[in-house]
């Protein structure tokens, strides 16, 4: 009777609703793709396909599934913004930003050091001018 409870009392999860199948009580998608978040599964489905997502979730232990779904959602959203590179593009962009900021920081630290040296020995900087 428990399997009838889910179908009768609760609406199907976002995944089952999108792929138009009956949502069973033991639905692998239901814990991660609730009915009130249809876009979450729609984007994942568009990139990975329902059967691939199902296979991936089935191959994982339950405690790993939530993190895997988060990764799939992140990648799917990244593919929306950059269809070719996906999250690799976002990571590359962030790495370039880090490198640029590190270079800026090194320049600023060098300037601070030069100013500090001028304050420590004002006579040596005036003799160079």
Automatic annotation (TrEMBL):
Protein origin, superkingdom: Eukaryota
InterPro entries hit by this protein: LOB (IPR004883)
Gene Ontology CC, one term: nucleus
Segments forming a coiled coil: 91-118
A Pfam family assignment: LOB
Domain LOB as annotated: residue spans: 11-112
Alphabetically ordered keywords of this record: Coiled coil
One Gene Ontology term from the biological process aspect of the record: cytokinin-activated signaling pathway
GO molecular function terms attached to this record: DNA-binding transcription activator activity
Family: Belongs to the LOB domain-containing protein family.
Protein name as annotated: LOB domain-containing protein
Species per Swiss-Prot/TrEMBL record: Citrus sinensis
